[in-house]
Design a protein that fits this description.
The chain contains ten helices and four strands; from the N terminus they run αααααααβαβαβαβ. It is of the alpha+beta class and about 300 residues long.
């Protein structure tokens, strides 16, 4: 599946595959700019490749917001490296199609000053420890907008090279929820109570090296955890449902839900408002020492 759908082959004629490669390039420049001592004139080869790929991306009707980001990164680079930039490179940047594009979108890119926040760890501890997997929901309906809000915040989850390879499918219609849950084996006894459902996937096209074959699950899992905490912050209860299944069943699920074959299934998240008499599993945890391998 990884070889078939990843950007290991046919990179330049697929918009999503190009997105992954472009994100790696512009983010490498951002990382260089964020260092205390940036190397003088760094990133020339990456910038030239970025100019090449964004031109191909634009020809494929790529999203404007990514092109805006790339232009802003180049503007920041030229400003920060003003005294060190190679004259030939500056000319190629300033003459490039990307640099001279006019955009309606307003998107940031480059670097910004960090203002550290003084947060209260005890508040976070209480927030995290009060989140439980709920399998007993009341009859209150869930607003689509509430689930969308959770996704809006969760898009700030870290991802490798800022590739943001995740995707989500939101359902609040009872018929659609029932159909989706019919492919999942762990919702017996409470699936009919679910009022909202989020299917999380990861896009294999955003990766290309063989050593990256598992990264889609790492990034997708982190995105899923962000969603679960965002739902908790909105006073919505949830239960994570695994999507480990046979290839045939996976194909059937994707076909029914119109999920592209290139996307890896990460999990379903069942959502609802906890019933007043809801019982939850204690789910006892091992001691902290068990999770520190070098102590």
């Amino acid at each position: 599946m990884y070889v078939k759908h990843s950007a290991s082959i046919h990179q330049d004629n697929d918009k999503i595959k190009l997105e992954g490669r472009i994100c790696v390039l512009y983010h490498a420049i951002e990382k260089g700019l964020s260092l205390r001592e940036s190397q003088k004139g760094f990133g020339k080869e990456k910038i030239l490749k970025l100019l090449e790929l964004t031109k191909k991306y634009k020809a494929l009707q790529g999203d404007e917001e990514l092109l805006v980001t790339c232009k802003n990164v180049l503007l920041a680079y030229c400003a920060r490296q003003e005294k060190n930039i190679d004259a030939d490179l500056r000319q190629k940047i300033e003459n490039s199609e990307l640099f001279n594009m006019e955009f309606s979108e307003k998107v940031n890119g480059g670097v910004e000053s960090l203002t550290p926040n003084e947060l209260d760890f005890d508040l976070y501890r209480n927030f995290a420890l009060t989140r439980k997997s709920v399998r007993n929901f009341n009859k209150d309906e869930i607003e689509y907008s509430d689930l969308e809000d959770a996704i809006e915040v969760s898009r700030y989850t870290p991802s490798v090279c800022n590739r943001q390879p995740w995707n989500s499918y939101i359902y609040t219609n009872s018929g659609e929820i029932t159909e989706a849950l019919s492919f999942q084996n762990g919702n017996r006894g409470f699936g009919e109570q679910v009022k909202g459902l989020i299917v999380v996937t990861g896009e294999r096209k955003k990766f290309w090296h063989a050593i990256e074959r598992n990264q889609v699950y790492v990034d997708g899992g982190m995105f899923s955890m962000s969603i679960v905490y965002a739902l908790h912050a909105k006073n919505l209860s949830s239960c994570c449902l695994n999507l480990n299944m046979s290839a045939r069943k996976e194909e059937a699920l994707k076909s029914h839900l119109n999920i592209p074959a290139s996307e890896a299934l990460i999990m379903m998240i069942a959502v609802g408002k906890a019933a007043t008499d809801a019982q939850v599993a204690v789910s006892s945890r091992f001691s902290t020492n068990k999770f520190i391998g070098n102590k």
